[in-house]
What we know:
The complex is a heterodimer.
Chain A: H1 7-10, H2 34-38, E1 59-61, E2 64-66, H3 71-76, H4 83-90, H5 128-131, E3 134-135, E4 138-139, H6 167-170, H7 179-182, H8 190-194, E5 205-210, E6 225-227, E7 233-236, E8 240-245, E9 251-255, E10 259-261, E11 282-283, E12 285-287, E13 297-311, E14 316-317, H9 331-334, H10 337-348, E15 357-366, H11 380-383, H12 405-439
Chain B: E1 2-6, H1 10-33, H2 42-70, H3 83-96, H4 112-137, H5 142-145, H6 151-175, H7 184-191, E2 193-197
Helix pairs in contact in B: 1-2, 1-6, 4-6
Amino acid sequence: xxxQSNWCRCTSCHVGYGWKDKDFDFASSENxxxxxxxxxxxxYRKFPTACGEPAYEEKKFGGKVFKxxxxxxxxxxxxxxxxxxxxxxxxxxxxxxxxxxGDLDSSLLKASKAxxxxxxxxxxxYSCTTCHVTKAHxxxxxxxxxxxxxxxxxxxxxxxxxxxxxxxCHSQTPHKKENVLNHHVDKVxxxxxxxxxxxxxxxFTKMWWDWSTAGKLDKNGKVIVKxxxxxxxxxxxxxxxxxxxxxxEPEYFWYNGSMSYFRSSDKIPxxxxxxxxxxxxxxxxxxxxxxxxxKARIFPFKVMRGxxxxxxxxxxxxxxxLFGKKGTGPYWGDYDWEKAAEVGMREAGLPFSGKIxxxxxxxxxxxxxxxxxxxxxxxxxxxxSRNGRLANLDGFYLPGRDRWxxxxxxxxxxxxxxxxxxxxxxGLRFVSAGRKGGQx
Amino acid sequence: MKVKLYLYTRFxxxxxxxxxxxxxxxxxxxxEVHGSYKIFGYDAACRWHNQAGITLLALSAFAIFWHLTxxxxxxxxxxxxxxxxxxxxxxxxxxxxxxxxxxxxxERKLNPLQSLSYLFLKVVILPLQLVSxxxxxYYNEWINWGITARLDGVAFxxxxxxxxxxxxxxxxxxxxxxxxxxxxxxxxMFTGWEEVEx
Lengths: 440, 198
């Protein structure tokens, strides 16, 4: 899925305030909506499909009423950024609370210490910008090895020097008692030990999204909607099947801070040979770095898996047209993948063979928030054991996990044989001593 | 006739038993760090293993000093005198109740088999283990020392020699039962006095 051809919806968060057509200048600062970050009245909300504009008159979306905002009141209340303002986009990425990130959801608004030691409302009570110190309106954060798709500066590319890290505040040697822990920070990221699980605040995060089952309607041609007992969407005719989880153990990979992205023009290799995902599936973003890379450390991730439509002839992912008038090809109306892909790919200026199939995909989301109290940091055994959390990472020797089967077998066998020999020898000694005792 | 000889001085006995304790403790914690079983927990096993290793290193420094200054190192001068006879004694003679072919004295308290195996232990096995252990301990400094090797080579050596030491220990303990009585050798390692045949 991609913003292209679906601009009006996606630009509600991604840069593109007032998006009109393909030639919109994403890099221009005039087109960045300041009020979203800096509104403190809590009334400024964008209308979901209004191309990044808020509701100027009362409108309805999915049963929710969007009250018109009073821009003057909002403008008079421009305050410093808060968790609510940043969260409005970052908690709801992907269309719902906690859907995308897994470590950023609305439970952080009233965080306890158990959920996040820094944003704990009764403790440090950090806002996002306490850590993400803004400098000339560039927010420090993750860097991208390449800017967001199509040259549009959606992300905030930063150079390494200004990059925000736990070490910015804690230094490289935060552990006083245990020097062995400080020895780990060159190969194990702080987050790996300090965020044992994510989505701990009671909000579920999406783990699986299967577009291949979308389009199934009930007997009357109506949309089917299935939810679990927590209200999580399990199936929707428009979107397909979904899986959700909370309190999830992250997956761990070597990561040097940069990723490469699979772009809509890229060809899907016949077998995505990258070892991180089970063969056939495709990595939407690939993590860079391995053990040999001195900048790479073991980092925790949420891996969002799913099935997406692709063009089996051209071997590209397709960009289906989702929104629009019924009959003009939008998937969410006509439920025809081929037609939706045809329109979408034409919009994007990409070739399309007319065929659709589905491919399994995986996408990596770094886990960096929801730092747990120090008592909950990973114990040594979580990693240093035969089937610990790092069981699947190879290419380096991890004490307690790794061994040489030959050496161990040989060693223990030799011990067994030695003991056997001793037993035999002692037995013979005992018997012959007894015989002599009997004779004399 | 039997005579009593004072073979093991106070320092030697202290050194022997503390070394024995340290090596056994290092084995127990070492194989836990290796992942063979769980006793103390990884954190404690790791820390105590390091501490015991450093202690053994310090003890060895004293022991080397002692060997050199007292001339006790002479007992470890390799000798192949009647080596075959001694091995034969342990395999067959001991069953017949034969006398030990080696004659212990204050000048030469270790039989050739002992002096060879202890020499091997002291100049090859233990140094290998101490050096690989130290390298392991300072793994995080390797970059600063310009060592680009991986941990696995050192870990392999350290584990392999660990097994060798384990085998040595088992055989060594068994052979202590081959004196006049099962415990007489052990006793003399506590008292320093050993009864030998004239």
